[in-house]
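User: Design a sequence. Structure:
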């Protein structure tokens, strides 16, 4: 992000985060699943909504589009909805594919589009590589300590998608769409009980959650050290996967496949 803009979480439903990108005048919303909490935010901070960015088609990410759009139209605010080309998104004005750029002129921000099939077939992320603080809006692909369920993609697709994210700068702040961290870390600790960075991180997360504070954003640097789904190449993770499933080989893809299945039933 640039120095004049900031990113604020708007809580929705039980554990969703709708990300607000704002310079105190203009506003862009990422995955507004619920219009009412957004309208509340807009009016409380006296902002002008001019862009909606969608990562994938699930209703907890898209449910607010229609109402926000007509809210803007009533106020005669021009509004643009951005979303993945390969998914059916209501009122999708600009259909995006890998390497497209979204220019939010009013916010002086440009975002790169990254294709991330796995959770859904057409899932995308938005990446800003500006100045000293790169930021990633990755929907339901990467969570702190976990990754999205494979509703429409194969383990290999998801592994490829996560590998793209691992290759972003380590300082990248990761704005995921759910507060799933605590449950994810319970599983991560089962896979890697001896990972001291994970043990320490888990303790910090428990402290934050006890005070009902957000654990998001996380960072690529942290996730590489603690997230089992980014660590399928590690011998410790491979050993755990083989213990869970004797048929698994000591390969990255086998390990990823097994721990994704294991987490589904955890
Ligand atoms: Zn989803
Ligand atoms: Fe979701």
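Assistant: Done.
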């Amino acid at each position: 992000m640039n120095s004049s803009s900031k990113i604020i979480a708007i809580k929705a439903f039980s554990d969703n985060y709708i990300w607000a990108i704002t310079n105190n005048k203009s506003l862009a919303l990422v995955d507004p699943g619920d219009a009412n909490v957004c309208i509340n935010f807009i009016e409380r901070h006296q902002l002008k909504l001019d862009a909606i960015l969608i990562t994938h088609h699930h209703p907890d990410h898209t449910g607010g589009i229609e109402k926000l759009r007509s809210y803007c139209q009533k106020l005669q605010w021009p509004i643009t909805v951005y979303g993945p080309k390969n998914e059916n998104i209501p009122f999708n004005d600009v259909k995006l594919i890998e390497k497209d750029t979204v220019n939010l002129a009013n916010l002086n921000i440009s975002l790169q589009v990254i294709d991330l099939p796995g959770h859904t077939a057409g899932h995308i992320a938005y990446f800003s590589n500006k100045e000293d603080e790169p930021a990633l809006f990755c929907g339901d692909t990467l969570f702190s300590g976990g990754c999205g369920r494979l509703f429409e993609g194969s383990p290999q697709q998801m592994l490829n998608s996560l590998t793209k994210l691992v290759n972003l700068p380590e300082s990248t702040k990761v704005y995921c769409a759910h507060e799933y961290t605590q449950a994810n870390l319970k599983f991560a600790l089962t896979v890697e009980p001896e990972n001291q960075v994970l043990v320490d991180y888990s303790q910090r997360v428990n402290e934050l959650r006890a005070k009902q504070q957000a654990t998001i954003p996380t960072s690529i640097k942290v996730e590489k050290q603690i997230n089992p789904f980014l660590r399928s190449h590690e011998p410790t993770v491979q050993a755990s996967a083989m213990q869970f499933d004797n048929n698994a080989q000591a390969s990255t893809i086998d390990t990823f496949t097994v721990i994704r299945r294991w987490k589904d039933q955890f």
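The CA atoms of residues 75 and 85 lie 28 Å apart. The first helix runs from residue 35 to 45.
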